[in-house]
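#help-structures
NK: newbie question, is this the right format to request a structure? protein is Cytochrome-c oxidase, cbb3-type subunit II
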Amino acid sequence: MFHWLEQRPFFFAVFVFIFVAFAGIIEAIPDFAKQSRPTVGTKPYTVLELAGRHVYIKDSCNACHSQLIRPFKSETDRYGMYSLSGEYAYDRPFLWGSKRTGPDLMRVGNYRTTDWHENHMLDPKSVVPGSIMPAYTHHFENIADLDTAYAEALTVKNVFNTPYDQDLDGDGKIDVKLGDYESAIATARKQAEEIAADMKNQKVKDAVANGQVPEIVALIAYLNSLK
């Protein structure tokens, strides 16, 4: 058989391609599936964090900020541990980005505070002199869409088996509670109150106290979750 293949270069090339492709699939797919499993400590987004993620996508923050730290010393020194596949297990869609007009935000929750984000979104140059980022003052006026965020959470729970309402770390407590619509919205508003307590903008505080959640609160919740 091999002698026959040696005399026919085309069929020999096809045979080699099939053999290499099959071997590659056998090696690559199991490892890819293993690396894509959620890493220890990775949890689904809360309803409020999902609402903030929607704001992040709506205003195209991923056009100027990446969420992907490459395994280079220059990046890990600045941004922290390089990204792992399993850390994106619950991201739909991925927000890796392809440009860094601004810094990477993969682990921004480790070194920026609610107060910092509030001032930065209101007046970037007051926090980072020379910044070319525009002010996002409308985030302090617009109200976040918690209903759509809840609908997404419920969908990924039922369709993709995202582990809401489960004990992920074995401590006997539910890690990310979803529940029914009323309880989910109540939990989101409670989380919003905790974030607003660390903010200075009185209009935002008043809105949260009245049961509304400005986009800035949801966005900060999302950014604080990136660790």
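mod (FA): yep, format's fine, and the tokens are attached above. The longest helix spans residues 9-35.
NK: thank you!
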